[in-house]
Design goal:
By secondary structure, the chain is mainly alpha-helical. The protein contains ten helices and five strands.
Length: 279
């Protein structure tokens, strides 16, 4: 169904995500990098990273122009946009394009007797441009994002004592002699634990590669790392073992894409929530 170009793009993405998750350093670099591309799906973040891991913020030609920062240099990246086909499952539970439905089937679809189901027929590639191809500065971008109240994309430096004080509602028991960084780590770790416990169903099904607890521990380590990095807490104080427990290969790409998608989406949510606690 997919074009050869799309198949080749997916092959590149699969290789890229396997390479990323087989090294602690590349995992941590990826986790920091991907959060700056939250306007794009986890799939497109991988696609963009594969094209240019040095990119910092990308948007369409028109977005830059309308924002007052026109593209001044050639050289674009691409994102993948799904091309959907409307369809349904017929009486034999076989998917068919909606345009092939009979009048009777259309009536059954409207009545809910037949299930409507749209599928991705292919992907088209859309050009986007990194900030380096425009005349915008990071300060311009921060101002633009602040104006749109797009929280969590770019965070300034925080005083660690203030971070700890403002996040105290998530604190359980802390050692009074612990460093501020360690206290913040405990606050964040407790909060991430609470978040993941509410998503327990996402980790109930063991895969061929990992047990459910392994998936959960990978997610916890990754999300905790992202939050601590955003608050400029020294991540080298803490060990990350679950993220490097498995040697991934393309035979288990579905498991890896699944956990990467969860990590990307959930890290946004946690960063936003904890950022709100500081505002």
């Amino acid at each position: 169904m997919f074009s050869n170009k799309t198949k080749e793009s997916f092959k590149e993405i699969n290789k890229s995500v396997v390479d990323i998750y087989n090294s602690k350093e590349s995992i941590q670099g990826w986790l920091k990098w991907q959060l700056n591309f939250r306007n794009y799906s986890p799939l497109n973040r991988l696609y963009l990273h594969n094209q240019n891991p040095e990119a910092t913020y990308v948007a369409s030609y028109n977005w830059w122009k309308e924002s007052g920062f026109p593209v001044v240099q050639s050289g674009c990246l691409y994102v993948m946009s799904p091309m959907m086909v409307k369809g349904f499952y017929d009486a034999q539970n076989k998917w068919k394009p909606l345009k092939e439905a009979t009048d009777q089937e259309k009536q059954l679809i409207d009545a809910g007797a037949l299930k409507a189901k749209n599928i991705v027929r292919d992907y088209k590639r859309l050009p986007v441009f990194d900030i380096s191809k425009t005349n915008a500065t990071e300060e311009d971008l921060v101002a633009k994002i602040t104006e749109k109240k797009n929280k969590g994309k770019i965070l300034g430096k925080y005083n660690l004592d203030e971070v700890y004080e403002n996040l105290s509602e998530y604190l359980e028991d802390s050692s009074k002699n612990a460093s501020v960084e360690a206290k913040i780590y405990e606050v964040v770790s407790n909060y991430v634990d609470d978040v993941l416990s509410k998503d327990s169903n996402d980790f109930d099904t063991a895969s061929d590669t990992l047990e459910g607890d392994d998936l959960r521990n990978m997610a916890k380590e990754a999300i905790t790392f992202v939050v601590l990095d955003r608050f400029q807490v020294d991540n080298t104080l803490f060990k990350y073992n679950a993220l490097t427990k498995v040697h991934w290969d393309e035979d288990h790409i579905n498991d890896l894409m699944r956990i990467n998608k969860y990590i990307c989406n959930k890290s946004e949510e946690v960063v936003d929530t904890l950022t709100d606690a500081l505002m």
